[in-house]
Structures are given as structure tokens and as C-alpha cells.
Fold this sequence. Notes:
- This protein has helices spanning 8-15, 19-27, 44-53; strands spanning 5-6, 33-34, 40-43, 57-58, 62-63.
- By secondary structure, it is an alpha+beta fold.
- It is globular, with a radius of gyration of 11 Å.
Amino acid sequence: MGKLLLNGKQLCQELNISAPLLYKLRRSGMPYHQLPHGRAYYILDEVTSWLLKAGYHQEKTWSK
């Protein structure tokens, strides 16, 4: 099964979070991938796994 790769805007829509929260999560250590001088992209399974391990939970939106 393939991995779902998302850009920042797509990840925000998928997780129902705001862009400022996305950047806050990145500063906290959320996994992302980036080619040299390229945009960051995210693997949805990695991100959701990290959120759960970091103590976040989702009802309607992700919160701690």
C-alpha cells in the first residue's frame, strides 16, 4: 500500500488544523520531509502516529 504524501495545505485540511498550528507542531518535532530548496511534504501515517505519541488526540480537531 502506498504512502499518502501531502503538502502543508493538504495536511491542514486532512487534520482540520490551522497553518499556525502546523508550524507550531513542526517546531515541536513533527516529522516532515524536504528536498534541498524544496517545499516540505508530509506522510499522513507518520504525522498521525507522531501526534498520538506526543499526547494529542482528535475529536473534531487535534488538541492536547
